[in-house]
Design brief:
The chain is of the alpha/beta class and 351 residues long. Helices cover 34% and strands 21% of the residues. Strand 10 and strand 11 form a beta hairpin.
């Protein structure tokens, strides 16, 4: 599907919870961090649901079962059923099941979430390359996954067994910081075998397809904190997205985003679901660079850096300043990534 290059955040005159029927929400960095709810997440999601928006939680983390994820969210004050959770384990299990006979043995390199997803598809998880598996399925297995599991994968793949991976995120957030993710584990097996897995998770189409099949969403809004998984997945799926700044993406990364990483909307946190989104207006250049105004802020691309200034009056909203800067940066970059220095401008808007 061809995509129109986006040159600035879009506007919505309706609250996003009314403009879209289903929010496809990432978890780590959006709803919780280190297991604890992010500020405003619980109240915002409750209000969005009350406004009629369906909520679904879409995660590349294949470790936990949907039941376990739903129980965790419910404990945080977000009532959730297992049917509202979609994992990359479910997406990769569907891929595997389409290629192998019913009941086939699948060598599992990962945790209970992946085993449960394979069983849901009528497949039989096994633990050894000597169990005659017809495929290898690899997903995040947590920090305690034994090193020998990678050897089992390598032995099977070397015999010609096809290899599938739930996702290839190199990192995963934890309560103590950023830890190696399933993508790092996939690299271990890739180095040992020289093989390439079929991958299901965000930003690839199998994960988006799994989300739509399980939710029945007609007008979904992807909500995430990562440009290279959540937002790129939305672009690949041809649907709108909201980037929240509660996770891994900061202002500098957002300004430098190439077209496949540019979100439809930008907001500070999940309260953005409950409001409209302001217009970013292109103003006359007057012989100079094109200028973009959002709220009290005006931004433009200078010769070697991005510039921004605020009008007079009430204290301006820094997120409006970021929206204006995005428009200036993305317009200047066109179909590439903006290389202009935006550090001083971001400091000026408080980000």
């Amino acid at each position: 599907m061809s995509q129109t290059v986006q040159h600035g955040p879009a506007a919505s005159d309706r609250p996003l919870s009314e403009a879209y029927d289903t929010a496809l929400l990432d978890l780590d960095g959006v709803v919780y961090a280190g297991g604890n709810a992010i500020a405003h997440a619980v109240d915002s999601l409750d209000a969005a649901r009350s406004a009629g928006m369906r909520l679904a939680y879409v995660t590349n983390n294949a470790l936990r079962t949907p039941d376990a994820v739903a129980a965790h969210l419910t404990e945080l004050g977000i009532p959730t059923t297992a049917g509202e959770v979609i994992t990359s384990a479910q997406a990769v299990a569907r891929l595997v099941a389409a290629d192998v006979p019913a009941g086939a043995r699948i060598l599992v390199i990962g945790g209970e979430g992946l085993r449960a997803a394979l069983r849901e598809r009528g497949l039989t998880p096994v633990e050894s390359a000597d169990d005659d598996p017809v495929a290898v399925a690899q997903g995040y297995g947590g920090p305690e996954l034994p090193w020998g599991r990678f050897a089992e994968a390598a032995y099977a793949i070397a015999r010609g067994v096809p290899w599938y991976a739930s996702n290839t995120d190199l990192t995963i957030p934890s309560g103590r910081g950023i830890a190696p993710g399933n993508g790092a584990a996939v690299e271990v097996v890739r180095i040992a075998t020289g093989a390439e897995p079929r991958v299901a998770g965000k930003p690839l189409p199998p994960m988006h397809r799994e989300s739509i099949l399980r939710t029945g969403a007609r007008r979904p809004l992807v909500v995430g904190d990562r440009l290279d998984t959540d937002i790129e997945g939305a672009v690949n799926g041809g649907v709108d997205s909201l980037l929240v700044l509660t996770g891994v993406t900061d202002g500098a990364r957002l300004l430098a985003a190439p077209p496949q990483h540019r979100p439809t909307y930008v907001d500070a946190d999940l309260r953005g679901l409950l409001t409209g989104q302001p217009e970013v207006e292109a103003t006359g250049a007057g012989g100079g660079p094109q200028r973009f105004r959002c709220g009290a802020w005006t931004a433009w691309a200078g010769p070697d850096r991005l510039e921004v200034r605020a009008g007079t009056g009430d204290a301006p909203d820094g997120i409006d300043g970021l929206r204006a800067l995005c428009a200036a940066a993305w317009e200047a970059a066109g179909e590439g990534a903006c290389t202009l220095d935006g550090s001083a401008a971001l400091a000026r808007v408080g980000l």
